[in-house]
């Protein structure tokens, strides 16, 4: 039985630093191509409809880093009523948690009871994400108050994930 958000990682060969740099740039280009796409729950059609979960799937698949996976359906407001960490369960076999995400990495934010919103980093402080409050896929700074803060005095919890951590070639001694 398939678990929700269970990724299928497509590993062809260990990734060299040069390959990783090219792949990160490719992920950023694919992410930028979604800007302006209207936000729609379960959407996965460039320029027509996308949500934050399917943005990750479509971008990393188009960049050739994961095979096709479809985590749908998922309840629209599962993060408000349940503490089930769907995103964390999905990312665990795919990527390693990191302190400082860089271009091409995933950043995850806690909304409601759990981590339930994600974006793709395009620089050290900007991400592309499908954001329901704005009604579209857009670029935001990590420091934007509506992204970074739960309240004026409370920082929103966030985590970074590096998909290449599990693809890097082992260092030779």
List key phrases describing it.
single chain, 173 residues, alpha+beta, endopeptidase fold (from Nostoc punctiforme), six-stranded antiparallel β-sheet, two-stranded antiparallel sheet, 10 strands, 25% strand, globular, disordered N terminus
Structural class: alpha+beta
What is the rounded distance between the termini? 41 Å
Low-pLDDT regions: 1-12
Gross morphology: globular
Q: Which series of helices and strands comes N to C?
A: HEEHHHEEEEEHEEE
Rg of Cα set: 15 Å
Average pLDDT reading: 83
How many domains in all? Answer: 1
Q: In CATH, what is the homologous superfamily? A: endopeptidase domain like (from Nostoc punctiforme)
Outline the biggest β-sheet: 6 strands, antiparallel
CATH topology: endopeptidase fold (from Nostoc punctiforme)
Strand content: 15-25%
Summarize the structure.
The chain is an alpha+beta fold and 173 residues long.
């Amino acid at each position: 039985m398939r678990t929700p958000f269970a990724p299928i990682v497509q590993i062809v060969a260990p990734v060299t630093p040069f390959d990783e740099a090219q792949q990160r740039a490719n992920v950023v280009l694919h992410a930028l191509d979604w800007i302006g796409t209207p936000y729609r729950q379960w959407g996965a059609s460039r320029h027509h409809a996308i949500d934050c979960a399917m943005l990750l799937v479509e971008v990393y698949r188009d960049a050739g880093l994961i095979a096709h996976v479809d985590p749908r359906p998922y309840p629209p407001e599962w993060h408000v009523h349940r503490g089930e960490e769907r995103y964390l369960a999905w990312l665990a076999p795919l990527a390693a948690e990191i302190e400082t995400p860089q271009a091409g990495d995933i950043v995850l934010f806690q909304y409601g009871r759990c981590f339930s919103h994600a974006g793709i980093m395009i620089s050290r402080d900007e991400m592309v994400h499908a954001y329901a409050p704005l009604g579209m896929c857009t670029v935001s700074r990590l420091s934007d108050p509506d992204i970074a803060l739960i309240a004026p005095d409370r920082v929103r919890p966030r985590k970074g994930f590096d998909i290449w951590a599990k693809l890097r070639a082992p260092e030779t001694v």
